[in-house]
């Protein structure tokens, strides 16, 4: 175990050189979250169209060279730079929205494109999102009914396909190629659940073009028609019932103003929209205009969070497998063998067959420096070893040296004379290791001694050889759980949304790695304090490594817009993670044999921590009490109650006038100093390194016209491409 800890610490020390880089990665993760969201929003419609593309040869998806969410100066995009007029683009995108009395809206999109045969070979495709979310957290599921598709005034073949949160309309025939030139497509469809209702007004927050087009759009416009509009039009054709009109242009999230409101209430752009830029409009009108229309139905965010659709049901397969796996594990290892903690009964004597180090190993599940020093102290108490101590003199050499306190030096040697001691095989092995050749004394004040290191390894191996009999094998189930957790985003990438799945896999790996480091540090602090003392500031540095990883990448995970995630996807991840955490915390760590040994250790600790004088006076005659104190002191040290027992021991020696042959007056300071010396002398010498170290949704705020709106917000939207 010690060698494993040393290896782990050495690897962690090398990681410390990467701390600045990891902090940078964490900071980049925090700052990159909007770009990750933008990338997902851009990629979703493109990937949604891919399966349909694969049905026919030659179907291509255009990938823009502009990074999503990163604004490119208009000077590099718009009309002031000469461009080849014969490149593929959208010449005009004109949309008309007609609100019906029942609240639905008839949309007519007239899209005029110039095709060269580069990407637009057979036709175009249009993607429409199936849900939109407001800033207040509400999610609205929309329904589209495609009514007619025209190309140059004639009906055109098309197909529809829903994938994830996207409806893809693929227009054109696979067996017919288009000549280079201009083509005008008209898409007519009905949409419902697309507007918002407030106490005094209704609002249409509509993404006209969508921000998912990989082409420039020369001109875009939108006109809204309310029910029974003819009676309310003024001399300019403006419906007088409209309260406010707002416009936004640019990349998703931008609040660009490159659009104007015409006298008739329609909106048109003032300059070319670059690829992935769009036009968004916000109209409000009095609520009584649609008095008979049902209020838009908001889906519960929790329902979208947890409940999968038929297409996303596959994401919950790993959840089911994980639950069944852990239930099976629990049945085989806990229920079936009848695993149960025995009653803890105070134990008034040393346990048969359990050394102090083994008692601590059972309690802490690791063999540390305190376990080693308590085993050596037990050999002293049994007169196998002899312990001698003396004060070291202050070092000479100036003011600083004069401040050094006197230290107590401890010497170990084989016990000679006195009573006859029966040696165990382990005792003989340790004596041979510690006092080989002519060496008859060991100065514990000398650090990094090979004999002490070998003795530590021998005693540690004696305990760890019984690990499988005492402790559950929890590592394999834990790794299986991690694998099933990561299987969810992998399935998402395979069956639903490639970018979203890959992003989640990478972020989850970073988060799990950081949590593993933090968990290891906390375990070391609370369960292996002897090791922590050896590590010094290592846990602090490990935490500094893990904190930016967990914080940065977790913030990216939770900042992904809920409506953009597949239904039930975040819930599946959360449930798997919680099941994994529950297993880590609640799964038994001990076998039945381990629980029996643990109950013995707890019973012994209960007696030693009380240290009631009247108890041992009734149990042991006066001539046996000092011996009882001596043999129990190593166990008290191992169980963390050494001071309590030593103070009682010392007080008894004073009041009774007795003397201890092996421990001077039962002084706790001497015992603690001995333990510290054992740790120093048995620790491995630090390795020397030759190298140096180095340090979307809508911006909704009640109404889009209040200034909280942005390009790409609200309902509508999507994008498209050529094939």
Can you put this structure into words, describing what you see?
The chain is of the alpha+beta class and 723 residues long. Among the domains are: 86-299, Immunoglobulin-like; 339-394 and 410-472 and 590-682, no CATH class. The chain is 42% helix and 18% strand. It is built from 20 helices and 23 strands. The strands form five sheets. The chain has an eight-stranded mixed sheet with strand order 7-6-10-2-1-13-16-15, with no helix packed on it. β4 and β5 form a beta hairpin. α5 (356-364) runs parallel beside α18 (622-638). The longest helix has 36 residues, at 19-54. The two termini are 61 Å apart. The model is unreliable at 1-82, 394-406, 529-534 and 688-706 (pLDDT under 50).
Overall geometry comes to elongated
CATH class of the domain at 86-299: Mainly Beta
In percent terms, what proportion of residues is strand? Answer: 15-25%
Number of strands: 23
What is the end-to-end distance? 61 Å
Query: Widest sheet: strand order?
Result: 7-6-10-2-1-13-16-15
Number of helices: 20
Query: Under CATH, the topology of the domain at 86-299 is which?
Result: Immunoglobulin-like
Overall mean pLDDT stands at: 77
Overall CATH architecture of the domain at 86-299: Sandwich
Percent helix, as a range, is 40-55%
Q: Biggest sheet, open or closed, and with what strands and sense?
A: 8 strands, mixed
What integer value in Å does the Rg equal? 38 Å
Poorly predicted tracts of residues: 1-82, 394-406, 529-534, 688-706
Structural class: alpha+beta
Domain Predicted membrane protein YciQ-like C-terminal: 348-528, 538-649
Keywords: Membrane, Transmembrane, Transmembrane helix
Protein name: Putative membrane protein DUF2207
Domain DUF2207: 89-285
